[in-house]
């Protein structure tokens, strides 16, 4: 057997990679964003983000330190009087723009935190942050419509600065400039400031603080604001990152099946194909570490023409797993193109598996290729959900088989409960119109119930793996698992 393996420790994609690179760069030299000094070509979609200043071990010049508050030890600047800027900026003397002071006529009303699912520890089915996972912070604001319209009827360029510190030590600040015309809208990402906080700094002890600054010299002389556009109003906000007993680790081996049945497959199971599945699995499930590899393909010569022949696929994947003898926490997922791109064909099948070492043989599933790769990736998450003992959830327009539906699903019509966020497309999955990934309605994303149950399952399984010691005993206790076929 041979595999191509990738391991991911929190970086979700190109946007995350950029943010990480930017943050890492701070230890070498402070950088500055381009000044938003004209705004002439800015649009609601235009926003730039970069890292600046900070860095607990790097030598900073006095200007940088003053700008982030490290010199005084009292946190970032909070002067509302633009004249107090005194020409300080993120880079000091290298010619960057002057600090124009805190923005006027605008209030920060809150910060949204999302790691693929909205973090809300206080809610029912509480979603707490995972350490070492990319995290979106969104800055919501209200403008004072009267003065805003009067002073800048076409909007004006502002700069949001996000300051981060861990255990009281400043890490960096990220900044983003944007043309602001009106109140932010939670459902419209292009009307909010959005920061992607790299996984490397997401840990217990992380605190953040946001300031909005003027970024257009034309508005430098405005009178001071009555309420500073900073959040929190004083001090810092701590991100609740519980210390898990073990890593939130998921290990998946993809098994391509080379179909030689009754048709000529057209799917190309190449790196790009598997990358989308990997990315989606990481985005939709509560994991900090995803080990994802692709096994050598196996041939499949039995024509898949109906339920009885389809039902042969899942045990075959389990057999491959048994032959390979992987660690007990490794999930095997078969992938086959049976040339059937129809609504009635099964999308996949999987075993229910308890979070025990003994259930290892049943960490197996099969996913059917469709022309819509996003749908395939979504089905992969769904089958992993079954492997994490999740049942189907009810939704409004699909009748499930009796006994396969969770009876106490808490959200009406199988909706997800809180907003999801897709890093690949920088898009929200609205809790009012998105169904749980274990439902059969679409579009689907992970609900807070499924998220918390998978997280608990991962913690139990990884604790069992840790407890078994360095020489794992691969038990083959064949309990009777449930099998589910998904349409
Ligand atoms: Zn299913």
Search tags:
six-stranded antiparallel sheet; 487 residues; 21 strands; Collagenase (Catalytic Domain); binds zinc ion; 18% helix
Written account of the structure:
The chain has 487 residues and is an alpha+beta fold. 18% of the residues lie in helices and 25% in strands. The strands form five sheets. Strands 1, 11, 12, 13, 14, 15, 16 and 21 form an eight-stranded mixed sheet that branches. Helix 4 packs across helix 7 (373-387). The longest helix has 20 residues, at 448-467. The chain is elongated and about 75 Å long. The two termini are 31 Å apart. 48% of the residues are buried. The structure holds zinc ion. Zinc ion binds at residues 382, 386, 392, 484, 486. Zinc ion (ZN) binds next to helix 7 and strand 21.
Quick synopsis:
This protein is an alpha+beta fold and 487 residues long. It contains eight helices and 21 strands. It folds into two domains: 227 residues, no CATH class; 238 residues, Collagenase (Catalytic Domain).
């Amino acid at each position: 057997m041979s595999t191509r393996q990738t391991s991911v420790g929190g970086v979700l994609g190109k946007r995350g990679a950029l943010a990480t690179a930017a943050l890492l760069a701070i230890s070498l030299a402070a950088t500055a964003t381009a000044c938003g000094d004209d705004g002439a070509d800015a649009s609601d979609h235009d926003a730039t983000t970069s890292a600046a200043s900070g860095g607990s071990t790097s030598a900073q010049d006095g200007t940088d330190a003053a700008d982030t508050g490290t010199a005084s030890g009292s946190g970032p600047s909070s002067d509302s009087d633009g004249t107090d800027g005194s020409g300080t900026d993120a880079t000091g003397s290298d010619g960057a723009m002057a600090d124009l002071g805190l923005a006027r006529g605008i209030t920060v009303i809150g910060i949204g935190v999302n790691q693929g699912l909205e973090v809300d520890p206080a809610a029912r089915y509480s979603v707490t942050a995972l350490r070492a996972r990319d995290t979106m912070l969104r800055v919501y604001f209200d403008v004072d419509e009267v003065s805003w319209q009067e002073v800048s009827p076409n909007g004006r360029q502002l700069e949001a600065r996000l300051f981060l510190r861990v255990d009281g030590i400043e890490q960096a600040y990220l900044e983003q400039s944007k043309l602001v015309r009106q109140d932010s809208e939670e459902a419209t990402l292009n009307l909010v400031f959005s920061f992607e906080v790299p996984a490397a700094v997401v840990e217990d002890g992380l605190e953040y603080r946001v300031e909005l600054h003027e970024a257009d010299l034309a508005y430098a002389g405005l009178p001071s604001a009555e309420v500073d556009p900073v959040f929190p109003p004083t001090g810092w906000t701590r991100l609740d990152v519980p210390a898990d007993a073990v890593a939130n680790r998921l290990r998946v081996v993809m098994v391509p099946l080379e179909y030689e049945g009754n048709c000529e497959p057209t799917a190309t199971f190449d790196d790009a194909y598997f990358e989308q599945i990997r990315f989606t699995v990481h985005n939709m499930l509560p994991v900090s570490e995803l080990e994802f590899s692709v096994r050598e393909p196996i041939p499949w010569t039995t024509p898949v023409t109906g339920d009885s022949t389809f039902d042969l696929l899942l045990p075959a994947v389990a057999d491959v797993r048994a032959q390979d003898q992987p660690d007990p926490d490794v999930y095997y997922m078969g992938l086959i193109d049976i040339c059937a791109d129809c609504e009635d064909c099964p999308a996949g099948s999987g075993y229910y598996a308890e979070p025990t070492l003994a259930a290892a043989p049943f960490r197996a599933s099969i996913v059917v290729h469709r022309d819509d790769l996003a749908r395939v990736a979504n089905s992969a998450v769904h089958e992993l959900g079954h492997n994490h003992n999740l049942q189907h959830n009810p939704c409004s327009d699909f009748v499930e088989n009796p006994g396969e539906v969770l009876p106490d699903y808490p959200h009406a019509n199988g909706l997800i409960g809180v907003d999801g966020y897709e890093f690949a497309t920088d898009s929200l999955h609205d809790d009012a119109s998105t169904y749980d990934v274990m439902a059969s309605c679409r579009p689907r994303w992970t609900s807070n119930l499924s998220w918390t149950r998978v997280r608990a399952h991962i913690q139990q399984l990884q604790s069992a793996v840790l407890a078994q010691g360095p020489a794992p005993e691969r038990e083959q206790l064949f309990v009777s698992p449930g099998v589910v076929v998904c349409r």
